[in-house]
Fold each of these.
Amino acid sequence: MPKLIKPKLLRKGDTIGIISPSAPLAGLVSHRVKNGVEMIKKMGFKVVLGKNALKVSEYTAGSAEERAQDINDFFGDKKIKAIFSFIGGSHSNQILKHLDFNLIKRNPKIFLGYSDITVLHFALNTQANLVSFYGPAVLTQFAENPEIIPYTKKYLEKTIMNVQPLGKIVPSLAWTDESLDWFKKEDLKRPRRMEKNKGWEWLKKGKGEGVILGGCISSMMHLRGTKYWPDFKNSILFWEISESESDFTKGESPENIDSCLTDLESLGLFKQIKGMIVGRPFGYTPKQVSLLKKIIYKRTKDYNFPILFGVDIGHTDPMITIPLGIKVKLDSAKNVFYFSENGVKE
């Protein structure tokens, strides 16, 4: 893997560009846009919306060319110091061929998002050698009622506003995957209910060290076999689960995740990696969580790497922010998930 380019850290007073590279939700839930943008400003930043960020074209925020243009424009604009996503979706893969990776490589900056933004993270890693950041989105985390969850805010700021490595990750004290209907504005009536976090668990013990790569598992699968697929040799793979397409309050089913894990094994990925981190499942019943663990055991039984399960990553809240391509360590004996390298530079 070539040496990755680290973007400059974000400072208060900097300007953030916001994009909609996939789903058109920003154009449909104006109160979430307003609250999310206000939260970013409250954190000390200026905000510019992409020209097409509020567009609604059936199931995407404009054409593939328009969505890509917002990204190219922001990477080319010297005033923009970071690019945040309004939300994910299912169609970021359509814009890859329209991105100017030479422009991006010449103008490295912080790129933040999760879920379907996984596709863009992989492309930035492989085509622009850029460290990008798997973390909160504007409509979901920044627009939280009454404000962004402190744990999410803390890890975001530690990751993109500080040149020191993140160091040891500490699990959140409480979490939620409650869904309040944005279209009925149920999210304005009350904060989501939080429940006590029991912490993570080690499904398989051991030590592992390598650069961290991964994302939303169903989004990752869009790129297998393409030039955008990263080099996972000697890496720590993390993955997490998105909402089900049939019910946004539930997670992608365990049986579908089993299929994805089978595909990853068929790709030879499990022979390459040094460890696995699984985000806390979204929208799962206790029975489904138990089934998912059995599936993970079954798919990885022939491999010897540590597996950490139930980490604050992905579609449940709060979440940490992960700089992709950065060195991390896993050690079950010490119960440690540790970032030994920084993701930004001065």
Amino acid sequence: MSEHKKLYDEVFSLIEKHDDWMSKTINLIASENVSSPAVRSAIVCDFRDRYAEGWPGERVYAGCKYIDEVELITIDLAKKLYRAEFADVRPVSGVVANLAMYTAAMEPLDRMMALSIARGGHISHARKDLGGTAGQIRGHKVRNWIFDDKEFNIDVEESMKEIRKLQEKGDEIKFLLFGGSVFPFPHPVKEFREIADEYGITIGYDSAHVSGLIASGFFQDPLREGADMMTTSTHKTLPGPQHAMVLAKEEWAEKIKRASFPGLLSNHHLHNVAGLAIALAEMIEFGVDYSRQIMKNAKALAQSLHERGWQVIAEHKGFTQSHVVLVDVTETPMKDGRAVEENLE
């Protein structure tokens, strides 16, 4: 047997081993989910081999008439589920969606506020010296929200003071970003709408982790609370394919569309758009029950860990209002998270 045929067979063997392993594993990775058989069926369609650049009906490529119809259905479902005026379903990941949001809302080098990585922010929110997307790709100067460690949330009063201080110094903030990767409680979006209007600041919200909970009404409603635009992942609490969206007020539509194409995307993984349409339809039909169970599971896990002596964060707040449960292991033999992960795996 040739060497390349051995490698060919090995890949399929490894896929089978992985599938078997996952079927027997309790996976507590908060950024992963399991999509339905219907979603998985959609993402293996012929769309996976096709190209479509631009907006539906305005494609650069031919052969897109059915692809366009599916994408328009996906847009309509997204707008319905999130009660959004505008939806762009082309971003291929949460990072790309965030880049589209930054491009629409800011000029390069503009200053923004976001959570620090240590307080739950995502690397796509971070400054250049940390390798963050906002700083490294767009040159944005990133100031971090003042954080209340006890409440595990943004400190509204102190962050307001920080914004005013920066504005008075001439270090203008152009963008306030809410959301993050470690995200057990809703962020105070509505509390900052007034100061954003006062200084002409745009508000964005990265809902990657909680987009399914938002869709089902179990978290907060950023677009009604004052956010101008919101990005999502589509494969965390929203159990779809690995993809993303940008949802926004209609006034941002053209800027977001142009940021996506030609700015950031050529083709946009059309098979995953089809899978996303199915996932959105499923969420409209079953999302409330699905998200309710996610919440029950998270709270039950937190309570059980607490009763067994673990230092679960924010007991006084019911531990969590999302799918994320945080445990302080710094004073335990498990403080080396990498070693624990490797041992459990």
Amino acid sequence: MNLAAMTNPIRLAERLKSEAHELGFAQLGIAPAVTPSGFHKLLEWLANGYAGEMQWIERRVDAYGHPEGVMKGTRSVLVAAMNYHDGTAPSGTRVARYASGTADYHDLLKPRLQQLANRIRSEIPGARTRVVIDTAPLLERDFARLAGIGWFGKNTMLISRSLGSWFFLGAVLTDAELDYDQSTNNSFCGTCTRCLDACPTQAFPEPGVLDARRCISYLTIEQRKEPVPHEFRSGIGDWLFGCDICQEVCPWNRFAPSDTLPEFRQTPAMQNIDCCELMTLSEQAFSDRFEGTPLSRSGRAGLLRNAAIVLGNQGDPAAIPTLKACLNDEEFLIREAAAWALEKLSRE
């Protein structure tokens, strides 16, 4: 039975898109629930070991093969894009833009996506929905492309002609059949390779393929329980948490809008992080400062490990007393990174 039979699907799609804009989303697209074209590429990516220690991807790999792996009976996937670019120029110790505001994006997107889901259920009685924000086995980028939001860049990011790539993606799955958007079948990157050329750790073995094990975002966020391999530490540069280099050099981001939610705007506290001061934080002080923000994901040991590497790369001898004090920290990750930074500073 077609649950949307009594509702005009085109008008419903228009109402959903209008409500999405009112909720702060820059774009909403609707795609059919199909096996995403990127599923077989995901299998190849995993086989090549490019996922690093992100073992949860392989544990749930079969579910990525179709939205049914997330919600039985799914027929439509609504994908919403929310801009987080605020137009400010970065400086000093770097934190990825998406994490430079005052809140975790999951907490801001989820209730807004839930309102879209509520709209579907109110318009189509009996319809089922599920909200997804990058925690379920759904290839959001694939469905965003199918929904006409953008194309895959050579840096693997989804790029929109009107938004660039500075946006979050969230999805609503439903068992209702809706009016689908035209997919984006073309790439508009042309011969440009700026993102590939700019990566300091050479994380792209080929265009459109990311080796996460070499990616600064992975190294500073996901690999938070192990030391960063020595060959990548200098390449991390000033990046304390995440990395935006391949997005910053993308020509399409020259057109990125700067209107975003207040919670996503970069704060002075995130723009002017003092790594020496970070190295003095206790577990409680770390929790008090970063709880509820994306930086909490690294944990104290992971973030202070990163801070020590940044201090080593910045080459300021004023950091030496702080780093020496960290040689007695209870966390091996911090002690090891502090020792590396001290050795690097001694050579400069």
